[in-house]
Amino acid sequence: MKILLFVALLLFSTLSANKVLYLTHEKIPDRVVKGEVFFVTLKTISTVQNFDDITYEFSNQVGLKVLNTIPYREQKGKFLFDTFHFLATGNSAKLPDITASLVVQPSEDSEIPTEFEETTISGKKLNIIALNPKKDFSNVIANSFELIEYKTTSFDTKHNIIVFTAIADNCNLSAIKFKDVYKQGIESITESYINPKVTYFLVVNKDLEKFSFSYFNIIQNRFIRKSIPIIVDDDSVTTQSDLKPKDQSKEKLKMNIAAVVAIIILIVAIWRRKYIYLFLVLIPLIYIGYIAIPSKDVCIKEGSQIYLLPVSNGTIFETTSSEYHLQKEGSVSKFTKVKLKNEKIGWVKNEDICSP
Fold first, then answer.
1. What average pLDDT score do residues 104-119 get?
2. Whole-model pTM?
């Protein structure tokens, strides 16, 4: 019996002689909400003191998306705490099997890297909870979600456009989406899941006085409501959300008033026989001529993209099929505002304007 025990111990020590990495799950959440970004921490120790790195491979995960294969690492004594982020995509989920490999560069007298046995830790099944949200849910699940700024301008005769920027903590902001809006989309977003930032646009009905929605707060375990008051801003072309075309009716009204003033001055000059007043008639006439000058046209290259907002990688609603000459409405940095032939307002990159 002692001989058999000795043989078993000898065999075990031989098989495990090359094992240099030992892994355990340090932190696994008790429950995960479907759509939540969560993290798992591995506690790792190596029996090799001098090594360059530890790399990981993932396999056999269920209902999850791996967000980072290179861990966020923290060292405490001899232990490494490597944290990975995941996105829960299914109604049921299992963590991946994680295989760790030790990386050691060859010594000066050897060109062949030292190889060690890989170590694999099996993934555990997770407790997934699916939400039952109300109609105003924005599809945002986060530790926090805050509106930084927002602005509303006129889109057309029936709609306003809201542009807002928001930041979140521990969130998949690319999933943001609202119900019962005319048009919507992401204009820009950061790739980070830890502290993401998004610029988003919404086209809503003009009779709406405020836009309200909810998101699910993971820490507080409840839905939190947010509201954006709709105050239409009619200022000049200075920001990315200024989409309002020139109001031609007001321009005509100004021209009519100036014409009436010119006629009155002319009548007074003739009645009083003070023809010097005729010079005053020139003032409203010059003003009428200034307003009547048509907006400058710009040449747009064939294949140019017309953007909804002046934001790089923003929403494209039209691509020119040929060289266009469009009415210029204004400009901001790197973009020119144009009026299309269908009276819509769009933005084109300055690089897509024909050279003079």
1. 66
2. 0.65
